[in-house]
Amino acid sequence: MTILQLISSRRVYGAEKVTLILSKGLQQKGLKVILGIMDHFEEENELESAALKEGLEVKRIVTRRQIDPKALNHLRQLIKTYSPHLIHSHNYKSNFYASLSKTSRQRWILTAHTWCGTDLKTKCYDTLDRILIRFADAVVAVSLNILEELAQWRVPKPKCFYIPNALECPVKAPHALDETFTVGFVGRLEKEKNIKVVTQALIQFLAHHKDSQALILGDGSLRPWVQNLIQEHGLQKRILLLGKVPAQEMKNYYQKIDCLFLPSLREGLPMVVLEALCFGIPIVGSARALKDVGEKPFTRIIKAPHQTKQAVSQSVKFLTELREMYQNKEAFLRLSQLAQKEAQKFNTSSMVNKYFDLYQKLL
Fold this sequence. Notes:
By secondary structure, the protein is an alpha/beta fold. It has helices spanning 14-28, 46-53, 69-82, 92-101, 120-132, 144-152, 195-208, 223-232, 250-254, 271-278, 308-326, 329-343, 348-362, and strands at residues 2-8, 32-39, 57-62, 86-89, 107-112, 138-141, 160-162, 181-186, 212-217, 239-243, 259-262, 283-286, 299-302.
């Protein structure tokens, strides 16, 4: 069985991590996997480097504009050369090109990771994508949130499948504790991540707890606003803006974080949630961010993330609860162990097997 995995990206975020894990797992099961990376730059990108390190066969498709006839011809030539049984696409651009390139000999499956258009242009792309995916042979939702959206957009139910994101936990030891309670945010500094609530809540929380600090890992268009607000309150030394951190360095930061804070407005199943659970880190997050995990001893769910004042107040309350629990090292370690146990439910072998079974079903 030959599979063409197709994704348009330069960086390695959640969807890219899933694509890499899936491609590697399928290759280990004996399938031939070609990873097609669509990108408007010709030089090597972060995703391609990560894929090559995993021993994957990578083909670059240069797209100089949203609809690029040369890129479309290149993709069609790749399909003609490798004759894949399945084309598996992972975001709106790769979905669009896959729909135009597949022949009657290929089955088309796509994974819906999330839709998070923040401006008119990307919202239009998202709407087009939601219409386009109805013509795929199978649509995989990575979270219960996405599965509900597929129903709202009238994607035929027999075509819809739920396969949650997964990862291989890199740690087995309990979460390390020290004297400083550290709150961490990991993600893009954008509206859909509710970064304004993140910043305001952290400022209020730290104002009352001098023994605590916060790490903000990620970058985005709202970084100047975040930076200015932190400076206004004189908290530059206690709220550290660390920017985009390379994937290979994330382990060091997860070992420092005692609570993940993720009040997102839109999410699929965030890989940062699964990564936090692997490290035994409790989570304060929105119902969307924690939909697939649910209410557990190690989660605190913000009920109204869209309402800034309420969301900030509730976030501060939950962060304070966990900080107080942190003072009791034994109780916090038990919480940490429960989180690690939960992470085991989202293992990579289960995810890969579910995709493999779906491939066989389609063929």
